[in-house]
Amino acid sequence: MTGAEPMIEAADVVKTFTVRTRSGVLRRGRTTLRAVDGVSFAVRPGEFVGYLGPNGAGKSTTIKMLTGILTPSSGALRVCGLDPSRRRTALARRIGVVFGQRTTLWWDLPLRDSLALVRRLYRVDAAAHRARLAELTALLELEPFLHTPVRQLSLGQRMRGDLAAALLHDPELLVLDEPTIGLDVVSKTTVRDFLERTNRERGTTILLTTHDLGDIERLCRRVMIIDRGRLAYDGGLDELRRTVDADRTLVVELAEPAPPIVLGGIEADRVEGTRQWLRVPREENAAALVAALAQRYEVRDISLREAGIEEVLAGLYRGDHAYWCSGRPVAP
Ligand SMILES: Nc1ncnc2c1ncn2[C@@H]1O[C@H](COP(=O)(O)OP(=O)(O)OP(=O)(O)O)[C@@H](O)[C@H]1O
Description:
By secondary structure, this protein is of the alpha/beta class. 33% of the residues lie in helices and 30% in strands. The strands form 3 sheets. It has a 6-stranded mixed beta sheet, with helices on both faces. A 5-stranded antiparallel beta sheet has the order 11-12-13-10-14, with helices on one face. A 3-stranded antiparallel beta sheet has the order 2-1-4. Helix 6 links the parallel strand 6 and strand 7. The protein is globular and about 75 Å long. It starts with 7 loop residues before the first strand and ends in a 6-residue tail after the last helix. The site of adenosine-5'-triphosphate has 12 residues, from strand 1, strand 2 and helix 1. This is ATP-binding cassette domain-containing protein. It is found in: Cell membrane. GO terms for molecular function: ATP binding.
């Protein structure tokens, strides 16, 4: 594969499922559900892309198609230049996959033995395996539990083991489905640092599905958002914030507690002691608002906060923005 070729190329990919329906007590029928509904995108080598969307949006179904577990109902899909469902074994040697909710390791074996089996599975040369295992052991700090059976590992340790297993054969592409789910802050940081480094230093292309916005803010330069099977956004995080035009928040610290501030059409939507939060619409002049506040209240401190990615996405998922509902992809 040459550097110019996309690592992943999806053209109008559709996946339908036939599901049972029930209306009333006795009437049963079947209907077709379009879990992925005409998705097109390309991921270039070396990119780190977040694949986001609310529950049931179609993320896992997309990932299962990318890894060859599911076959698209229509459309064209190529990963590392291969058709995933037809060339599943060949593709497995070139990609790494981690599902946060389940492990690919052997439950009863010590981690080290599990990783040795992975080497056989992927036919990795023994010397290359030794070198890579030593590197991954150091980076993921696996040494203290290499001899522990997988079933006795904590969630964070197991996830580090799974990442090592997925990367032992040095894949070009790493596909991650919720890799930090259930992890504590320290383990999350270890995993994120490791992923960031893997992408930067080895040039591994990474596609990450997560509900953890910390993962996204820390790692992804580009995000794709899917909702009800359709790609609704594909671009940078900062552009997303700008596109959505989310409201800003004015945090006001008063000299003494007061009833919720009302200024023009704006009212505080949160009050805690002397602190109040006001949502400032984009079109509102924040400077004029601050001046009016200072005239009427004794203000100790004031700060204007841009909408965080969490608020931006919550607005999108609620359908606050027209383009979101239209299902029309937004150009990067
Ligand atoms: N094997 C299946 N048979 C029938 N319907 C399915 C199947 N797999 C997924 N679906 C449906 O397809 C839709 C998309 O599911 P998918 O698991 O891809 O969503 P998701 O974005 O990964 O959600 P979550 O964030 O909750 O994991 C959902 O409505 C789901 O119920």
